Amino acid sequence: MKLWLDGGLQEVEAARVSVFDHGLTVGDGVFETVKAVGGRPFALTRHLDRLTRSARGLGLPDPDQDEVRRACTAVLGANPMPLGRLRITYTGGHGPLGSDRGDQGPTLVVALGETARRPDTTAVVTVPWTRNERGAVTGLKTTSYAENVVALARAHEHGASEALFGNTVGQLCEGTGSNVFVVLDGEIHTPPLASGCLAGITRALAVEWAGARETDLPLDVLQRADEVFLTSTLRDVQAVHRVDDRDLPGAPGPVTAKAMRIFEERAGDDQDP
Ligand code: PLP
After folding, report:
1. Is the complex ipTM more than 0.90?
2. Residue 164 near ligand 1, beta carbon < 6 Å
3. Looking at the whole model, is its pTM more than 0.90?
4. Distance, CA 207 to ligand 1 centroid (Å)?
5. Residue 137 Cα to ligand 1 middle (Å)
6. pLDDT tens, residue by residue, 158-215
7. Cβ–Cβ under 8 Å, residues 195 and 168
8. Where are the alpha helices (DSSP H) in 117-253?
9. How many other C-beta atoms lie within 10 A of the C-beta of residue 224?
10. Whose CA is nearest to atom 4 of ligand 1?
């Protein structure tokens, strides 16, 4: 298995990053997860744009998009697999043992792992912790995922595969690794970016392709929505069959099923929409 580090391919076992890399010591880094179908990355341009936005948000130098593209191609070529997840990690690099950055420049790692198609439906739980819709790193895809790790563990304890957060003003926000959609009277709604959610790439495609609207939604909308679904790179569109103690029998409902179909058809057409 090979990954990209220091400008070239390396064996995973041999690859070395400083133990004082700020991605490790203070979570000073950004990342992307890109789906690769048959060795081809999906929506890579959108992922690279978001990587750059996230890096700028942290005050990191812009990643070299040509290098990241070359790295993705090289890693995919070296590790053939039918369905993979590329992980692009870009950090503040080696630095002092504090929050100030060093001057050694950023670290770029592109690695690939195998992944499986997700089930069509899943259970979710809401968690009592909130997303801060006005924080310094809100909306950036940073490597500081500890809050998501804790919430996801809570979901697993309850037999669910995803945990959903509200924000500090009681509105629905997003999951630990997904955006959330609800169907009300036949219309699809998703929280706006101002709720504090990540600008999910699958979310944007669902807004464009399935006509979802961005709407402020109270967290308890989950208790009355006709249908609920999640979107993410590795899920595409995934229907929700249980939210906390509420069952949604028959999931995927008709509107979600249509969104799933649209997504399957259109995402197959173009690898880089
Ligand atoms: N929200 C969070 C916090 C995420 O980590 C992710 C993806 O990993 C998403 C939403 C969904 O984004 P995308 O559709 O770009 O995968």
Report:
1. yes
2. no
3. yes
4. 15
5. 15
6. 999 999 999 999 999 999 999 999 999 999 999 999 999 999 999 999 999 999 999 9
7. no
8. 146-157, 201-210
9. 10
10. 177
